Structure formats: structure tokens, C-alpha cells
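Job type: complex structure
Entries:
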Amino acid sequence: MTRRRSGPRVRQETPDDKAALVFLGPWLIGAVVLVVGPLLASLYLAFTDYNLLQDPNFVGLDNFSRMLGDERLHHSLAVTFTYVIVGVPAQLVVALALAVALDRGMRGLAFYRSAFYLPSMLGSSVAIAVLWRLIFGQAGLFNGLLGAVGIDTSTSWIADPDTALWAIILLHVWTFGSPMVIFLAGLRQIPREFYEAASTDGASPWRQFRSVTLPLLTPIIFFNLVLAIINAFQSFTQAFVVSGGTGGPSDSTLFYTLYLYQEGFGAFRMGYASALAWLLVVIVGAFTLINFWASKYWVHYDD
Amino acid sequence: MTTDTITTPATTTGPRTPPELRRHRPSVRTRVFRVLRQALMIAVVVVALYPILWMIVSSLRPDGHIFGNPSLVPNTFEVSNYTSGWNALGAPFSTYLLNSALVVAGAIVGNLISCSMAAYGFARLRFRFQRPAFVVMLLMIMIPIHVVIVPQYVIWAQAGLINTVWPLIVPKFLATDGFFVFLMIQFIRGLPKELDEAARIDGAGHGRIFCQILLPLMTPALATTAIFTFIWTWNDFFSQLIYLTDPNLYTVPVALRSFVDAQSQSSYGAMFAMSVVSVLPLVVAFGVGQKYLVRGIATTGGK
């Protein structure tokens, strides 16, 4: 009897502060020293001329007014927005199409899923970026394939400012495997009865896709979209390797994070780089908020 | 195809086909459709994996035969690409593989220990400031690395630890990957609380409950964490590029990138060879941990 009284219920009410300090101690140190502290520090540095060697001087809004006239920044924003606005939807459409094609009792599903996931896993590696550079180079695989179908060209697609970005967008689309796996998991949740009912009513496969699959999948599409946009804004490796770290030719692959890296760790304008980082946070945050706001109009939740 | 009386093998229908459909042999139209669908999917797999296969085949070709040659037939086995690539940089490639392995091993151990402890704290303990702490943890998932990288760099520079592996490993021991903390919190919340309470009645403290009861049950979440940490750290380029500038400390991605800058047109075979070597551990990890990987992506939306 006494045991029951001093049992778990009662102990739950006394806080486990000491135990929490032990279990969350490492996390707390990391959160304070490596995240929250640096977050505040970079907010401060954004208003300074810090260059790593000398103490930072407060310069007010100088970094932000410099942004207004910084043409490389404007260019890198245009490049990054193009990449996000074209690359993300294109990748998700491919992912969704293949997930739907694989969903209905396809034989060999496990094999296809693995095969399609592989590019996704390797896609962010330097090795694949190197490969891409060679595929779209002057004597690369792409021109070889064009030659095989009778189009002879000696264009280097990554050396041409009009096409270099598109080669990197294609690389992004190629990594459709991981959103596809998420779509497959979502498709699995759709009750079979809905399709049976639709097909009894004479709905064509396209109509079933439009009226059953798509609406019920909107929460997953939304999830993929939010994640993909946040990640795409932070893309770095591919543009860095394909352009040899320059963002060229003619800044045509100057991704935002690449410009930030050049300013911060190339030119050591760390105050300006911090300001750029905060602008990135604002942009990504705004996109995410807009996404959540817009979701009210197209995402269906069961309730 | 003629209809006959032999019953349809169950394998031609998916596992989710309702039983009443299984009694009939699928119509000719359905079967043609299925064959076409398989053929189409195989074609998509070939297209998707073409660049990777081409990279492997090209790594075995003499330099003069790589470019403009889209064929996937491995007609030569130029193993010398591997030997020359292995020794093409300042140190043998094994140095870079070992450096990467060290960073990856440290990151995995760090994440497994610190994230599981933090997750236990958040999921099972009651403590003061629990809500704000949880909000900070969620914030850590969302903020881009670029906004904290400058102050973090300053911290490591002042500690004299640039050009060591510590800036890449220590944060993992401090549970800064909020993503994995969250993953494990969700997992622990799914485990029955009665287990803890029974152990507590038997006199076990939080340390024993965590180590002897919850950790063994958390194997799937730990495996998912380990494999994602492996892939992301192995592919990580941005922070390794920033913290490792001494060529002897280069990890695989940084070394591979310097390879691109250093090499002339004539040694592409060697570059392909080292690219293949650099993705090999990923492919092996993929093979071993596929189950956890697919489950992990489906539940968390990892890259």
C-alpha cells in the first residue's frame, strides 16, 4: 500500500531537474555555445565591419545599404531564385509521377525504390558534382550523346553562362529519389476502397489520380515542398564544384551560399557575410511562411 | 495470349489487390499494360543510373577514350587510373579516406550518445524551462548553418582548432543536430511508459532506465541516426572546406575538389577512379542500412 502511494504518479510531480541537467547537459552546452550564442553574435556582426583580424567596429546599417548596390548579390539572388523556382517543382513532379507509377502493386518495387534512391544519396557529393562537370563539358558525355543522334556540337554547357545553371538544375531534378520515397509512403496511406469506389463509378485512371490520389496526397506534397525549398536555398556543393569555386561563368552559377562563402571565407568580410546570412534566414523564413499560408487553399487534411 | 484454366500465380498481383480479383486471370489488356509498365520503368532506371554507370566504366578507360564515348560497355580495364589517381595528390588517397572515416566515426558516436540522451530528457523527464528548451531544440533543426558559421569559426579559431577534426566532431557530441534529437524523441514517445514505471518501482534510476530499458528498444531510431549521419557527414563539403585547409588533413570531398583544380585535361580517368572510390563507402552503407534508410526518409523526410 505504501509503495503504491509513493509510486510513479506522485514522483512525476516533482521535477527531475537534476537528472535533466545530466541528460540534457551536452545539448544545453551545444545549444548555448554553438547555436544561440553564435546566432546572436552573427546578428551583431551583421552591423559591423568584422574581418577576423581586427575587432569589429559597429557600422550601423552600412552592410545592408551596401546590399542595395551590390550587383553580384542581386545576380546571386536571381540565380538562386531560378534554381529554387524551377528545380524544386520539376524534381517533385518527377518524384510524384514515378511514385504513382510504382504504387499500384508494381512488381520489383523494392528494386526500383533503391535504384531511384541511389542518385539522391550520391547527388550532394563532390564526386557527382565532378562527374556533372565532366558530363556537360566540351568533350563530355552529353555532347557524345548528342553526337550519337547526329547533333554535332562542341559547346561546353558548363562554360556557357546561358546553360551552366540549367546543368545544375538538372542535377537537382536527378535527385528525385528521396521525395519519391516519401510520396510512396504517403500513397500507401490512401485506402484502396477509394479507388475501388471510383472505378465502380467509371472513373478513368487519370480521373482517379486527379480526384482521389492528388487531394489525399496534398499534405505530403506540402511537406516535400517546404523541405525542398528550405534545402534548395542552401545548396552549395554542386555550384561550388561545377564552377570551380567561382560561381562562373559570368556569375551564372553564383548561388547565394557560394557568394556568402566568397565574401566571408574568401575576402574575410565576415560582417557582410553575417548580414548576408541573416538575409538568407529572412528569405527562407518568408518562403516558408508563405507556403504555410498558401497551404490553407490547397492542402486537404482529414478532420 | 490464350486464356487457360491454370490459376494465376499470386505474384502477378500486388499484395494489396483485394482477394476477389485474384480469382480471375488478369485480362490480356491488363497484362500487356503490366509488361509495358515494367519496360518503361526499366528504361527510367537506366536513364537515372546512366551517369553513375558511365562514371564507373569511364574510370576503367584510358584517358583518350573517355570523352565523347557514351558507351557503357567496359571494353578496357585501365586499372592504372586507380593507381595514378591514388597517388596524384600530396598524400596517397588512403590518407583522405582515413581522415573522412575519422570524422564520420566521431560524428556517428557523438550523435548516438548525445542525441539519445537529450531525447530521453525531453521525452521522459519533467524539468523547469522544458517548453522554452524544446522550442530552442526545434529552432536548431530549422536554422541554416550559414547564419552561425561565422561566429562558430571564430570560436574554433580562438581555440586554435582550425585544421583539426574537432570543429567537425565536437558539435556532434553536443547534440547540435536537432533533427536526430527530434527523431528519437518521437521514437521514445512511442514506447510504453509502463516500462519505465515498472523499472522505477524496482528501484532503477534514470541512468539505468535509459541504458538498460530504453536504449535497447531504440535500435531502429539509433540505426536511422547512424546511417544518416554517415551519409551526410561523408558528403558534407561546406564545413569541411572551411575548417580543413591543410592538405594533409583533407577529407575525401575536399581532396576530390582540389583534384579537380589541380588536374589537367589528361588525367580524367584518374579523377573518375577516385570519384568512384569516394562514393563506394556510401553505396556499401546504403546496402547495409537500406531498411533503416527507407524507413527514416519516409518518417522524417531526410535528404
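Summary: Chain B has two domains: 10-58, 93-300. Residues 268-300 of chain B form the longest helix (33 residues).
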